[in-house]
Write a structure and sequence with these properties.
Layout (H helix, E strand, L loop, with lengths): L6 H12 L3 H31 L8 H44 L3 H6 L2 H43 L1 H20 L1 H27 L1 H6 L3 H53 L5 H43 L21 E8 L8 E8 L4 E6 L5 H8 L7 E6 L2 E2 L5 H7 E4 L8 E2 H6 L7 H10 L3 H6 L7 E2 L8 H14 L4 E5 L7 H15 L3 E5 L11 E6 L2 E7 H6 L4 H14 L1
Parallel strand pairs: 3-10, 3-11, 6-9, 9-10
Antiparallel strand pairs: 1-2, 1-4, 4-5, 7-8, 11-12
Helix pairs in contact: 1-3, 2-3, 2-5, 2-10, 3-5, 5-6, 5-7, 5-10, 6-9, 6-10, 7-9, 7-10, 9-10
Bound molecules: adenosine-5'-triphosphate (ATP).
């Protein structure tokens, strides 16, 4: 039974945070000890009162003391519950923050593997389970174990016979629970797994509601939902059945303890070894003995369930991001525009399935590069490597002459700005979304940048200007407006390399034209990489890289490629012009 309790793993995981609450621990121990003393004194007071009933003046003070201790018991229970819960939750919240930071530091692949719902279930659900563990283990379980031991000692003091019988009863109960120990646990683990799958599915569907509805997949969603519910019901019923078996066994033990107490008490009475007060006290102590046994049984189940939670949290902590900060210190990128160099880069999202082959090119600081190529040719993958969302399997990527694997991730991402088609909008004001919740950026700087980007008319049309409230996921903005916001956001950061990956694909031609002029102005003095299907957006870039099947098919100055009518770029351009005139 004990080996199944996750005491060591729990303290390994949460121990460092519990240590910060030493004074609360001391207070908790004091409260629990006082509570035990109060509980043990109460039956003794009643015995004293009953024994005084035969005398001419019954000692009523014992009744008053009994009532007073009853009130003290309630207050002490409340106080120890409060302190116990407080310590458990504070420590669990620190663990939750660490887990959250750990998840946020993971690779993009991690977020593809775990759905938001599943992560929520682990970061919140499993940690909640652990918060309860402390309270249940220290306050309920340990407290009741001590109470059980002391009650037995008190019973021995009343008469060895009742002590011995009750010791046998406690040992018998422990044996029954030991034999039943593994009965309920697998059912609870299955309940946890089914709930993870269920919430994972719901989370996924809620984030994709728009696509689900527009593609008419609601029927599939409901079928899958019902299938998951159908899986859940029998698993819960099994767990409920296991619970009933445990409950019935504790009821049987309760009946048995009453029979034993009556038997021994009757013998003590007839042998003249105990008076009515003592018999009553024995009865009360026996009831007090059964209470802790039952609580221990109940808490054991909860404590065993905590193993499943600890396991799920441990698994998450064991996942290490493949992309991380350099072992020590790390280099810093130079200020100003950054040169870009790829050298012999091989990369694949899955080992053994490369999507970029032998990529090598150089872009001087302040130059602009347009990357073109068919869908799936590897353009976005190049951008992802520059931000170290992934690392190449071989070869190096350098910025400003520094291998980016030797630069701290935060330092790198401060200097590289990217705008893509998928803009993330957070719940907050337009200002928060532009500054990423950085209050140190003055409004004046934001407004002058918006004016420079020719976004002043868009900004002025917002109902409350920078204070306009936006909803998570872009509620309140059209896809094009969200893209405009992303442009402003990236230029506020003042990066040395800017990547625009199909960044203006959702803008109407007039807005795109206006923004294009502004962006060109802002790109001056910065290095820029523009990824585009519409070749017209690339007419001002210095160099062109044509990708084909993960390989560089062409890499030259735009002017040189345009001069050669047989270059791939010239052909692509002619084709796109033809398509426009058709
Ligand atoms: N997260 C991913 N996991 C696995 N494979 C991926 C992932 N992202 C892209 N790929 C694959 O890598 C290859 C290159 O994709 P990439 O997105 O770089 O192409 P692209 O040229 O930018 O395409 P598009 O023009 O459609 O944006 C494709 O075969 C694609 O299927």
């Amino acid at each position: 039974m004990w080996t199944k309790l996750p005491i060591l793993p729990y303290f390994r995981l949460v121990g460092p945070y519990l240590k910060q609450h030493k004074s609360r621990f001391a207070l908790l121990t004091l409260l629990l000890a006082a509570n035990i003393v109060v509980q043990l004194t109460m039956p003794w007071l009643l015995m004293k009162y009953f024994d005084s009933l035969n005398s001419p003046e019954p000692a009523e003070r014992f009744i008053f003391l009994f009532i007073l201790l009853g009130v003290c018991y309630q207050i002490l229970s409340l106080a120890s519950d409060y302190v116990g819960e407080h310590v458990g939750w504070s420590a669990a919240n620190k663990l939750r923050s660490r887990l959250m930071r750990h998840c946020l530091g993971q690779d993009i692949a991690f977020f593809h593997h775990y759905s938001p719902g599943e992560l929520l279930d682990r970061v919140d659900g499993a940690v909640n389970g652990l918060a309860e563990f402390f309270y249940k283990f220290v306050v309920r379980f340990t407290n009741n174990l001590v109470l059980l031991g002391v009650t037995l000692i008190v019973l021995y003091n009343i008469h060895w016979s009742i002590g011995a019988v009750m010791t046998l009863f406690v040992a018998g109960s422990a044996l029954v629970y030991y034999l039943l120990r593994d009965y309920a646990l697998p059912h609870w683990v299955r309940v946890g797994e089914t709930s993870s799958a269920f919430f994972g599915f719901i989370g996924e569907q809620l984030t994709n509601t728009e696509d689900t509805r527009s593609s008419g997949a609601s029927g599939y969603v409901m079928r899958k939902f019902k299938a998951l519910l159908n899986q859940w019901l029998p698993v819960h019923m099994e767990a409920g059945r296991a619970f009933s078996v445990m409950w019935m066994s504790s009821m049987l033990l309760l009946g048995l303890s009453t029979i034993l107490t009556f038997g021994v008490s009757s013998w003590l009475w007839h042998a003249g070894l105990a008076g009515p007060g003592a018999i009553y006290m024995i009865m009360m102590y026996t009831v007090m003995l059964v209470g802790p046994i039952d609580t221990i049984r109940l808490e054991l189940g909860a404590l065993q369930r905590a193993s499943a939670n600890i396991e799920r949290i441990r698994q998450l902590f064991e996942i290490r991001p493949s992309v991380g900060d350099p072992a020590e210190g790390g280099d810093t990128l130079p200020g100003g525009a950054l040169s870009v160099e790829f050298s012999g880069v091989e990369f694949g999202y899955t080992p053994g399935e490369p999507v970029l082959h032998g990529i090598g090119f150089k872009l001087e600081a302040g130059e602009s590069l347009g990357i073109v190529g068919r869908t799936g040719s590897g353009k976005t993958s190049i951008a992802r490597l520059l931000l170290r969302l992934y690392d190449p399997q071989s070869g190096t990527v350098s910025l400003g002459g520094t291998d980016i694997s030797r630069v701290k991730l935060s330092g790198l991402r401060e200097r590289v700005g990217i705008v893509t088609q998928d803009v993330q909008i957070f719940k907050g004001t337009v200002r928060d979304n532009l500054t990423f919740f950085d209050p140190s950026i003055p409004d004046g700087k934001i407004v002058s940048l918006l004016t420079e980007l020719s976004l002043d008319s868009w900004f002025e049309a917002l109902p409350q200007g920078l204070d306009t409230q936006l909803e998570a996921g872009g509620g309140g903005l059209s896809a094009g407006e969200a893209q405009l916001l992303a442009f402003a956001r990236v230029f506020l950061k003042d990066p040395g390399l800017i990547i625009l990956d199909e960044a203006s694909s959702r803008l109407d031609p007039a807005t795109e034209e206006k923004l294009d002029r502004a962006v060109r102005k802002l790109l001056r003095g910065r290095t820029a990489i523009l990824i585009a299907h519409r070749l017209s957006t690339l007419r001002h870039v210095d160099r062109i890289l044509v990708m084909d099947g993960g390989r560089i098919a062409e890499n030259d100055l735009q002017g040189a490629l345009l001069e050669d009518p047989d270059s791939r770029y010239s052909r692509l351009l002619r084709q796109s012009l033809r398509n426009r005139t058709v």
